[in-house]
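Colleagues,

For the teaching module next term, I've prepared a clean inverse folding example: a structure given as tokens, and then the sequence designed for it. I'd like students to try predicting residues themselves before seeing the answer, so please don't circulate the second half yet.
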């Protein structure tokens, strides 16, 4: 029976209210005192009491009540203005005096029914909220498992991701992970309140997991004792009563995941869908594991092949370098003898020679010197490729070295009617800019570049420039010509040993194809590099960049700038 609490003064209107309500409800009277510490379902308040302290009491009871507590106000019709603020604050309805018993009972029942409906709605909302939160928790768990499976690279990692998720997704008492092994079901792993069949194998037609794989659909069993798909003797030694097993990979099942309950349990659609989603993710993960294993095997095989090829190439390179070094030494000794004896004969130390003999001896000496130069190039190349090139480290004057190089190249340029110029950065001028390195090798590289420029330039001129790069502090030496130029397709193999560009353009110009390869190797050994830019028909610019020790810029005299000399 609903309980009604009255807040009434001692006036004569209280007794009719009590008489009218007592027929159907239990009535409690507060008599203007603080609220009774007993539960009740509706509060009936006299307007006079509400004015004094009833509103505060009603508000406090509302706050203490777990659900909405209806309040019914009793007032005279001439109190409308006083009633309005209470209706807006804490009162649900007003009953006007004088009171009609039937009206009072009807109003009270209406408020109580509204309160009951509100409570029922609140309960449904709470239940639905709990269900949604539970579903969200399962979805989060599934998502975490899928992420772990996506990162799995071994079967053990797959099992580690499935083991906790398979059981918790459905709140089961146990879970198992089964793989197909030919015509058998292999129970690989489990997580359960009691032992199942971990490590055991059963024929496909002798267990429920085999049925799920053979039929490519979930096996849902509420009570294993009442389903003819269950080998009862196999299950009786376990705690299992209800179960559901879903296949891994519905197209070509490779296994199954199962949930077990200790009591009869009919798996819900959501539980089956969650477990099947997990099984689908496992199918992808197992394919990834197999793919990863194949890739690892292929990588291992390819790595072994590359390692063997590398060792073979290194052995071949060592043999080539040893061969070049040996043969170069063996050839250089007789060539030195030929050049030396030829020079002795040309000086007449072994007797007079005729003009024809002198001409022929000059040819022999020139050919011998050219052969010695090629032998030295081969020695340099073999040392560079073997990493045995040793460079001196000494202070030298770059301008002096460059003037010597230009002096060597001057006759070659003059013979072709070419202008040869040298421009030096004031910071590199003689006496100011001293570098540390191997001056002989610097000369060798620049002379190679200058010789190539003269060789492939038929008109115009050649400029040799040296400067200090402001941003890096490197020393840059450029050799620019107005020659035939180099096509873009030929630039990528320009520095390869024995490689030359278009033979039709190089006809009659000579060269072994070693100069640029040696120059690039020497530049790298000096901690620098060689670069090139070229335009066919307009010329090329080869540049050597190398580190150097250069003092801070000095204050130049008025009118001083980059020094340029015409050779």
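(Answer key — instructors only)
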């Amino acid at each position: 029976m609903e309980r009604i609490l009255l807040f009434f003064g001692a006036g004569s209107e209280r007794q009719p209210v009590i008489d009218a309500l007592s027929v159907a409800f239990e009535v409690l009277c507060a008599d203007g005192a603080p609220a009774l510490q007993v539960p009740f379902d509706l509060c009936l308040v006299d307007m006079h009491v509400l004015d004094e302290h009833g509103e505060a009491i009603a508000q406090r009871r509302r706050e203490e009540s777990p659900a909405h507590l209806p309040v019914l106000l009793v007032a005279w019709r001439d109190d409308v203005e006083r009633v309005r603020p209470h209706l807006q604050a804490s009162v649900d309805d007003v009953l006007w005096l004088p009171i009609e018993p039937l009206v009072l009972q009807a109003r009270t029942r209406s408020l109580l029914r509204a309160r009951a409906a509100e409570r029922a709605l609140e309960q449904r909302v709470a239940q639905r909220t709990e269900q949604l939160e539970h579903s969200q928790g399962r979805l989060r768990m599934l998502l975490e498992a899928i992420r772990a499976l996506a990162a799995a690279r071994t079967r053990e990692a797959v099992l580690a991701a499935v083991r906790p998720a398979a059981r918790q997704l459905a709140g089961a008492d146990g879970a198992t992970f089964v793989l197909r092994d030919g015509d058998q079901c292999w129970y690989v792993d489990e997580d359960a309140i009691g032992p199942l069949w971990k490590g055991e194998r059963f024929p496909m037609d002798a267990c429920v997991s085999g049925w799920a794989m053979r039929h490519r659909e979930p096996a849902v069993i509420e009570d294993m004792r009442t389903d003819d798909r269950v080998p009862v003797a196999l299950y009786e030694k376990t705690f299992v009563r209800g179960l559901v097993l879903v296949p891994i990979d519905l197209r070509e099942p490779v296994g199954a995941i199962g949930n077990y309950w200790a009591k009869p349990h009919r798996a819900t659609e959501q539980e089956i869908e969650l477990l099947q989603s997990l099984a689908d993710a496992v199918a992808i993960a197992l394919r990834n594991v197999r793919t990863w294993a194949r890739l690892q095997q292929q990588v291992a095989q390819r790595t072994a092949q590359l390692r063997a090829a590398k060792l073979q190439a290194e052995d071949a390179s060592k043999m080539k370098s040893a061969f070049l070094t040996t043969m170069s030494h063996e050839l250089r000794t007789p060539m030195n003898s030929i050049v030396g004896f030829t020079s002795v004969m040309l000086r007449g130390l072994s007797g007079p020679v005729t003009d024809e003999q002198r001409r022929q001896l000059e040819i022999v000496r020139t050919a011998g010197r050219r052969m010695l130069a090629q032998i030295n190039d081969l020695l340099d190349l073999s040392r560079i490729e073997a990493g045995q090139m040793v460079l001196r480290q000494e202070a030298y004057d770059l301008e002096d070295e460059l003037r010597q190089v230009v002096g060597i190249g001057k006759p070659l340029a003059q013979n072709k009617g070419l202008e040869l110029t040298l421009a030096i950065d004031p910071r590199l001028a003689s006496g100011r800019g001293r570098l540390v390195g191997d001056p002989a090798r610097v000369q060798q590289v620049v002379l190679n570049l200058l010789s190539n420029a003269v060789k492939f330039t038929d008109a115009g001129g050649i400029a040799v420039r040296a400067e200090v790069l402001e941003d890096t502090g490197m020393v840059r030496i450029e050799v620019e010509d107005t020659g035939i130029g180099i096509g873009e397709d030929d630039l990528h193999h320009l520095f390869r040993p024995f490689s030359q560009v278009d033979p039709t353009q190089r006809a009659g110009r000579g060269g072994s194809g070693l100069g640029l390869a040696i120059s690039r190797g020497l530049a790298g050994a000096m901690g620098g590099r060689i670069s090139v830019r070229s335009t066919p028909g307009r010329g090329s610019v080869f540049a050597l960049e190398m580190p150097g020790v250069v003092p801070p810029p000095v204050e130049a005299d008025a009118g001083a700038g980059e020094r340029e000399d015409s050779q």
